[in-house]
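Same chain as my last thread, 178 residues:
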Amino acid sequence: MQNSAEYYQTPRLELEKITTDDAPLLLAVWNDPAFVRFVADRGIRNETQARVAIVEGPLDMYSRYGYGPYRIVRKSDRAAVGICGLFRRPFLNDPDLGYAVLPGFRGEGYASEAARQVLVIAALVFGLPRVKALIVPANAASIHVVEKLGFRFEKRCSMDERSDTLLYDFELDREPGR
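reply #2:
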């Protein structure tokens, strides 16, 4: 496993591990109406709850798997624009690509750029053979992102309380976007 910092940046963005100091960012992400609609209402309403969720989520994933979600930071002004990374789901054999960009930063290609780089990290740093993506059918923007990266639709499935979810697959022996 490599750990080169070059894999954690793009021309416009840096991907940084989330810490408990990111409670305000995660609170904003988890309570964004689009996140609640397309992902889930995590029920986290204050920074104390967000810090606990960070310890139980991202920090636990880093310790177990080495990876997890990353804070997306715009290089030009160091603004945190959202999150993107790899998640583990008990019902999937492979990690799941997830991302969320805050409302004021959407439409700039940050989700695609960060997701493409996370696929590079998955292959070159963690040596993973494949990555999945779970998306609700109404989330056209996320479907566009994964299809543009080269994910292939695998099947419809159920996830948590969502009875209709699309499962996409990406083999990491291919370059993202090809």
